[in-house]
Design a protein that fits this description.
By secondary structure, the protein is mainly alpha-helical. The chain is built from 32 helices and four strands. Helix 7 packs parallel to helix 8, helix 16 runs antiparallel to helix 17 and helix 26 packs antiparallel against helix 27.
């Protein structure tokens, strides 16, 4: 975020800088001119951002409906936006008493929801304890292993409860699966954090680099805005627009002299360039030759020492030592005998410094005299503009260098800090990442506990439904049915044991996830930053809206529009460059000059031409040059010598010291051959090319100069004063032309700044990819999905407990039948046999009620049934 703010500030500084810019020294791509209407088309600023690797869309993989359920529940608990509730409240002001009351009021619905969870945490252990005491101590709550015949006949009730429990079990299974899936996704997201983090850093750096490129491109646009005026205001522009047309009108008959003058001026420049190159190459060749000879001399000395060591060793074959000693590494190259061209170089340097092109035209041809007069007469009118150019150029360069330097330094320091932060917290081997592994396994354990309860209920239903038969009495139920009932009661026990712990975990993560959801809800559009960071989002005294910034950047608007810079700087008004130039029209119209007192051939030009004629470039000994160029550089092939030394080193591998020295010398020979020798060859090739070009250019050079001097003398009297009227007309057109360029340039600059400069789509893409997609969608939604799945399962604990206890009565094998319903209720005296008790009570009952044997309830007919004596109740 700090990097983004820095970029925004740099843009504003750049905009404020642009208002003072009129002219610069160069333009990367000059504007295209439509000569029919004098309209300039300037180059637009382009965006060259690479495609983003950060995804801004989240693939829920089929769980979005489940996540929407969690979001809907949290929105129901607290539908109010935090930014609306605390509108106008700064983050630093939250500790005030008034804001504390607002916070408490805002958190009240969340506290209520947490209260229900805590109530569940408190009541479930109490209910479980009471339920256990009721069954174990009082033989109530379904604890008696007894079911009346009438109750056991309620098959529809058993079926309905089984179906209900089955439905709830399936619903719990969905919650369990969601728990495992969301846990895995949280873990995957945590493992992917380093990748996302690096992608975010790269995106930010890419945008910063693109910003640097566009600032550089803007710096190229600035001279393009004033490129045409710069040319017109400069000496060449004045000459082109005033001097040259005047020359075409007054001195059109001097075209042959002009052509010869230009040709001579070009030849002088070319010859001077050749002489400079030859002189430089000569110096370089002598230095390289000295380096080559000294280097080879040193190597030869070392080879002699190695050969002596080899001979003194005694165990090395003499042939090898002789081969080493006979290795030829020397050079007798000598470039000191090249012909001396210092006099010619001095002469042509003087001629070149005299600027033959301008001075030949100014002294020999009337056009350059006229052009110089125009330049001199317009200096007072152009001096203010020239000063502004120099001052503005320095400011532009310094500011642009500073901006780019600051951005580069920010990138470097910020990237270093971010990478350090990543190594400390986001690497898989970091200490912080270990806690994610702990969390993952804790979540697995919690999911497994709920899954274990589900398995118990599922097995209870499976065995109970498969083993239950409606025609079998409660005391004769099958082992499968009895096992199903036991599984159900086991699930009840575990639900009572773990319900409080699981609900406490659910409550804690609901509190965390709820607040994360609230933050993400307002962070999506950036309104949260506008609410709590309003005092920090200020640039040049104006508040910046993050919400508006994101909205504009998501449509890839320019940063000028996204930041609403128009409220800070009125670019349209401030960039009226024409007003910055002053009264250019009156200054240019004040020009007045004539063609009197103009000399065709100045003394200085005459002296230069005579010196060039006497330079004797045609008489240079070019044959000596070319013959010395083809001399042999070294007495032997250094690469072959290096190869031989390498082979000797391989043969002497058992003699490490000698072999190592040979390899070292071989490497040095290769290096000398690849550098010094190669450089000498290249320089000789360049020298040959320059000598050949000098020889060709100098051909008939003296005759050309003498002919030109003759032409100048013939034109010495050709002076006229007919150009005064033409000059005034040209100045008027010249002023109109300059003002037109400034108007067009100002309009183009304003359009570029407002429409094309620094499109901020990558900022929104980075924000949406990291904050909205990765953090809020990928991590927060799965965190909320886990506690919702856990809470979903806990929601069915109470009805599942009730149904499981009820169904266990239908599935478990009872110890007592309905014949004992009205006579003996457990517990019995264990010392009194059941058969005797049954017989006594049956007879007593018959006598008291005057029943006959035919009226008595039918005894159990299952002869295989054996009464249980060990206990009268089952838990």
């Amino acid at each position: 975020m700090k990097l983004v703010y820095s970029l925004m500030l740099y843009v504003l500084l750049l905009c404020s800088l642009l208002i003072d810019i009129v002219l610069t020294t160069s333009c990367r791509k000059p504007p295209v001119i439509d000569s029919t209407n004098n309209q300039a088309t300037f180059e637009n600023i382009s965006s060259r951002l690479l495609p983003s690797k950060i995804s801004t869309s989240y693939d829920a993989k089929g769980l979005q409906a489940f996540f929407n359920l969690a979001n809907s529940f949290m929105n129901t608990v607290q539908p109010k936006s935090i930014s609306e509730q605390f509108q106008g409240v700064n983050l630093k002001e939250l500790s005030k008493d008034d804001n504390k009351a607002k916070i408490l009021k805002y958190e009240t619905p969340i506290f209520v929801a947490l209260g229900f969870g805590l109530l569940f945490v408190i009541l479930m252990p109490i209910i479980g304890f009471c339920f256990c005491c009721c069954r174990c101590c009082c033989n109530k709550c379904g604890g008696a292993m007894f079911q009346s015949e009438k109750e056991s006949k309620k098959y529809a009730k058993c079926t309905i409860m089984s179906l209900l429990l089955l439905v709830m079990t399936i619903l719990m299974l969905c919650g369990i699966l969601f728990m495992f899936v969301t846990n895995n996704r949280i873990n995957e997201s945590a493992k992917n954090i380093s990748t996302v983090y690096n992608q975010a850093i790269n995106e930010a750096i890419q945008f910063a680099n693109a910003t640097i490129d566009q600032i550089i491109e803007i710096s190229d646009q600035i001279p393009c805005i004033t490129y045409l005026d710069k040319q017109d205001i400069g000496d060449d522009g004045v000459k082109k627009l005033i001097g040259n047309p005047l020359y075409q009108s007054v001195l059109s008959n001097l075209s042959d002299t002009i052509n010869i003058s230009y040709s001579l001026s070009q030849n002088v420049s070319n010859i001077y360039g050749f002489l400079q190159s030859i002189n430089f190459l000569n110096i370089s060749l002598n230095e390289d030759a000295d380096d080559l000879k000294n280097g080879l001399k040193q190597i030869k000395k070392e080879l002699d020492d190695i050969a002596n060591d080899c001979i003194n060793n005694g165990s090395i074959p003499k042939e090898t030592c002789d081969s080493i000693n006979s290795t030829v590494v020397s050079s007798n190259v000598d470039f000191t005998s090249f012909p001396d061209l210092s006099d010619q170089l001095k002469t042509f340097k003087s001629a070149t410094s005299f600027d033959m092109t301008e001075n030949i035209k100014s002294t020999i041809m009337k056009i350059e005299d006229i052009s110089n007069t125009v330049v001199n007469k317009s200096k007072s009118a152009r001096s203010d503009l020239i000063q502004l150019i120099s001052k503005t150029e320095d400011q532009v360069q310094d500011m642009l260098y500073q901006i780019n330097g600051n951005i580069t330094n920010t990138i470097s320091t910020t990237k270093s800090k971010l990478l350090t932060f990543e190594n400390n917290y986001f690497r898989s081997n970091s200490e912080a990442f270990k806690y994610e592994n702990y969390r993952y396994y804790v979540y697995i354990g919690i999911s497994s506990v709920v899954g274990f309860i589900f398995v118990l209920m599922a097995l209870g239903l499976l065995f109970g439904c498969c083993g239950y038969k409606k025609n079998v009495s409660p005391t004769h139920r099958s082992s499968a049915s009895n096992c199903g009932g036991n599984f159900l009661m086991a699930s009840v026990g575990f639900m009572f044991i773990f319900s409080a712990i699981l609900m406490m975990f659910c409550v804690v993560w609901f509190a965390v996830g709820m607040h994360l959801h609230i933050v993400c809800r307002d962070v999506h559009d950036g309104i949260l930053f506008d609410s709590f960071l309003s005092d920090q989002l200020i640039i040049e005294g104006k508040k910046i809206s993050v919400k508006l910034l994101l909205s504009q950047c998501r449509s890839n608007a320019p940063i000028y529009k996204a930041l609403n810079v128009e409220n800070i700087y009125n670019i349209s008004k401030e960039l009226n460059i024409k007003d910055k130039t002053g009264d250019l029209n009156s200054k240019l119209n004040s020009l007045s000059f004539d063609l009197n007192d103009l000399n065709i051939l100045s003394d200085k030009l005459k002296e230069i031409l005579n010196d060039l004629a006497d330079s004797n470039t045609e008489t240079v000994n070019y044959t000596s040059f070319l013959s010395m160029i083809n001399e042999k550089i070294t007495d032997s092939n250094l690469a072959l010598a290096a190869l031989n030394l390498t082979n000797y080193a391989k043969n002497l591998s058992s003699y490490n010291s000698i072999a190592e020295k040979l390899r070292n010398i071989s490497s040095r020979l290769i290096e000398i051959d690849n550098t010094v020798v190669s450089n000498i060859k290249n320089n000789l090739k360049n020298l040959e090319s320059n000598v050949t070009a000098l020889k060709s250019t100098s051909y008939h050079f003296k005759e050309t100069i003498l002919d030109l001097l003759k032409r100048y003398n013939q034109s010495d009297a050709f002076i006229k004063n007919e150009g005064e009227y033409i000059i005034k007309h040209l100045i008027s057109n010249y002023s109109t032309r300059l003002i037109g360029w400034l108007d067009q340039g100002s309009t183009h600059l304003v359009v570029q700044v407002k429409s094309n400069m620094l499109k901020c789509g990558p900022i929104a893409n980075l924000y949406d990819g990291v904050i909205n997609t990765y953090v809020c969608s990928d991590i927060v939604q799965n965190v909320n999905g886990f506690w919702l799945a856990l809470g979903w399962c806990l929601l069915f604990f109470v009805p599942c407990i009730i149904l499981s206890v009820k169904l266990a009565k239908f599935y478990r094998k009872m110890n007592y039948g309905s014949s004992l319903d009205k006579h003996v209720q457990p517990p019995f005296n264990e010392s009194y046999p059941m058969e005797v008790r049954s017989s006594v009570h049956d007879q007593t009952s018959l006598m008291e009620n005057n029943w006959s044997h035919t009226d008595a309830p039918p005894p159990y007919s299952n002869n295989q049934f054996t009464p249980r004596y060990n206990s009268g109740y089952h838990y």
